[in-house]
Amino acid sequence: MDKISNIFLKILPIYWAFLTYMLLRPGVENHEYFFMFDGIDKVLHLGIFAMLGFSFMAAFPRIKFSYFFQIILIYAFLTEILQEEMGLGRSMETLDIVADTIGCLIGYYIYKVLVKRFF
User: Fold this and answer.
1) Span 67-108, pLDDT tens digits
2) Would you call 119 helix, strand, or coil by DSSP?
3) CA-CA to 68 of 20 to 30 Å: which in 9, 27, 56, 75?
């Protein structure tokens, strides 16, 4: 288990930095692809935060749930506030925060299920 934790301790900062860049870069609406639909950004938020939650738990498996949840939730709120305040074509959306929260919880529970099953 410590080996997996060490791997995710290296992956997590890289993923988190990339995620921050992607969430704060200038926004462009793009509907030219067949898979684009209204609400796809909520699905993306859910997925990227599920991966963040999973990676965070894999890196810090002994962290209390309340600390984990607070850290991820503060990050979700901060990125949404910064999107609004930076004026780069992005805006703060409450449903993004909801999707972020659900995503991090999904990542947390996937991690817990995998640990219980395989370790």
Assistant:
1) 999 999 999 999 999 999 998 888 899 999 999 999 999 999
2) coil
3) 27
